[in-house]
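Q: what sequence does this backbone want?
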């Protein structure tokens, strides 16, 4: 294994997570403006972003399998095109309903072809330091959150909603450049050499049917693994408690009577805590059981959520932002090392994607139900 190239792959995957996951996590800032421009309800408008997470996770299951079947470079490159195209088309939207096609569907597919495959392919290049590499990868989404929530604020003020989305669509095209730096892992190349040459003579319909059958068979085999079922259930609840903050925390702060500048500060604290703590948790997890550290972070996040619901003090909201970014925000750091132990490296892509999918289904159902009065 080329150790130097491993860090090139990690850097490319970090760039992808920064520009894809970071943008998705900044939807709360976009939500505030969409509520102003389109005058939709908070629950309905938040559904645009929460269902995009569902589309992301469903697409990610196929994206990882396609990455193994073809190459991760092709899947990530196409994902970058889809993400940019969906945001670009949103510039011309005059009704919120159409955002479900441009942002939720098209951009959501782009997210799915970027986030899960990038998180999967990185693990093939790290063994001994997989947890800290995962920490760096996950912290990149915190950098993206910090970047985009400030970009949203400044670009909205300068160019309005449409101008902001146009510029963002150009920025995220850098995902295509990052995708070109990624080579197919040797382990998957060895797997491809065992393909029957006669398979290349089959019709496209037969090839697609075989691909779907193998994908379903692999997914069903994971659901016969009791350890995976328990881990996936835990990750699902953790994702609900964490991801919902990106849709609801900015409106929650505004509902307490604070200005948008306070939202920007809170989300900046959120992002900085996430960036720093995810790297630290990754380094710690290389030495301590990831399951133990994961349980501690989830407990702290849940306890903090109970406390913050009884306060209107801005400094406590800032403190809560730091806690959420630093503790439950680390759930994605622990997922790869925990799942590798129970499912194996070959099944990591499917295991990660299914865990994301279960979380996204729950998030899409839960977020609109939470009535945020602005």
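A:
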């Amino acid at each position: 294994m080329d150790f130097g190239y491993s860090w090139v792959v990690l850097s490319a995957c970090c760039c992808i997570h920064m520009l894809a996951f970071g943008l998705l996590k900044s939807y709360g800032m976009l939500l505030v403006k969409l509520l102003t421009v389109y005058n939709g309800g908070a629950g309905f408008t938040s559904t645009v972003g929460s269902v995009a997470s569902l589309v992301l996770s469903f697409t990610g299951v196929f994206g990882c399998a396609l990455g193994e079947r073809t190459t991760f470079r092709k899947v990530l490159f196409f994902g970058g095109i889809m993400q940019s195209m969906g945001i670009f088309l949103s510039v011309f939207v005059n009704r919120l309903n159409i955002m479900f096609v441009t942002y939720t569907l098209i951009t959501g597919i782009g997210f799915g072809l970027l986030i899960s495959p990038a998180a999967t392919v990185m693990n093939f290049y790290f063994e001994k330091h997989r947890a800290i590499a995962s920490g760096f990868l996950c912290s990149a989404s915190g950098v993206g959150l910090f970047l985009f929530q400030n970009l949203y604020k400044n670009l909205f003020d300068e160019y309005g909603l449409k101008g902001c989305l146009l510029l963002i669509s150009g920025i995220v095209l850098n995902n295509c450049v990052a995708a070109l730096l990624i080579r197919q892992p040797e382990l998957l190349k060895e797997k491809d050499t065992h393909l029957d040459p006669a398979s290349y003579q089959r019709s496209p319909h037969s090839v697609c049917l075989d691909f779907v059958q193998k994908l379903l068979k692999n997914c069903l085999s994971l659901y016969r693994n009791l350890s995976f079922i328990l881990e996936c259930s835990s990750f699902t609840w953790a994702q609900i408690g964490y991801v919902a903050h990106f849709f609801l925390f900015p409106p929650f702060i505004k509902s307490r009577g604070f200005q948008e500048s306070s939202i920007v500060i809170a989300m900046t604290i959120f992002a900085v805590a996430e960036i720093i703590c995810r790297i630290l948790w990754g380094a710690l997890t290389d030495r301590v059981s990831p399951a133990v550290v994961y349980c501690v972070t989830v407990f702290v996040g849940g306890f903090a959520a109970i406390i913050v619901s009884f306060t209107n003090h801005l400094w406590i909201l800032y403190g809560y932002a730091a806690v959420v970014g630093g503790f439950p925000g680390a759930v994605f750091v622990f997922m790869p090392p925990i799942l590798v132990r129970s499912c194996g490296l070959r099944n990591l892509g499917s295991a990660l994607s299914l865990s994301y999918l279960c979380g996204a289904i729950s998030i899409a159902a839960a977020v609109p139900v939470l009535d945020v009065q602005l």
